[in-house]
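Quick one, tokens below. Sequence please?
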């Protein structure tokens, strides 16, 4: 099988399938051994630190998945197949829309949010303010929320809801009194 034959049209599922092949420790070791250079079955087994029989089993599975093949009697890795599948999957993914008018704000939000979840709270204050403003938009102005409800809303964004709540209060996006919170800052989307 040539390197080109190992690719498929559906980048997302192809990338998942290829990563699934590499999720097995022995197959990963064999693939890594081939990335270092082509070789016969014994060379690959020695580099992977596996018995020849186990290396052959892994090579057979990797070959069926299009990640390796035989050329001139030697096993070779088709690294490009994996890279192409990942590139197609990334290209097929729709960029998230955040409703921010400023392209710089949108860029910050794309770094810190994945699928609507906050992957990390920015350490840099200017970026943190952009993230907090985005989070604060889920709270309706003029509505008072009990702490339990605030925590539930913030938990949907990030597991450390207490830190997120503290930042929102400290930066003036939310105010608090007697266990209730209400929105006092941030961008209002009409």
């Amino acid at each position: 099988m040539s390197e080109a034959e190992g690719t498929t049209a559906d980048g997302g599922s192809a990338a998942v399938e290829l990563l699934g092949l590499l999720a097995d420790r022995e197959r990963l070791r064999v693939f890594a051994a081939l990335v270092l250079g082509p070789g016969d079955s014994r060379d690959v087994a020695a580099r992977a630190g596996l018995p020849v029989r186990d290396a052959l089993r892994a090579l057979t599975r990797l070959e069926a998945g299009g990640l390796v093949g035989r050329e001139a009697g030697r096993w070779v890795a088709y690294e490009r197949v994996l890279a192409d599948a990942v590139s197609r999957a990334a290209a097929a993914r729709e960029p998230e829309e955040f409703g921010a008018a400023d392209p710089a704000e949108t860029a910050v939000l794309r770094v810190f949010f994945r699928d609507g979840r906050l992957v990390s709270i920015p350490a840099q204050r200017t970026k943190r303010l952009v993230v907090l403003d985005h989070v604060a938009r889920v709270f309706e102005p003029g509505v008072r929320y009990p702490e339990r409800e605030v925590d539930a809303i913030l938990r949907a964004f990030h597991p450390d809801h207490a830190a997120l709540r503290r930042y929102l209060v400290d930066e003036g996006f939310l105010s608090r009194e007697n266990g209730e919170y209400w929105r006092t800052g941030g961008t209002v989307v009409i």
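Confidence is low (pLDDT under 50) at residues 1-11. Strands lie at 68-71, 74-77, 113-114, 117-118, 144-146, 174-177, 180-183.
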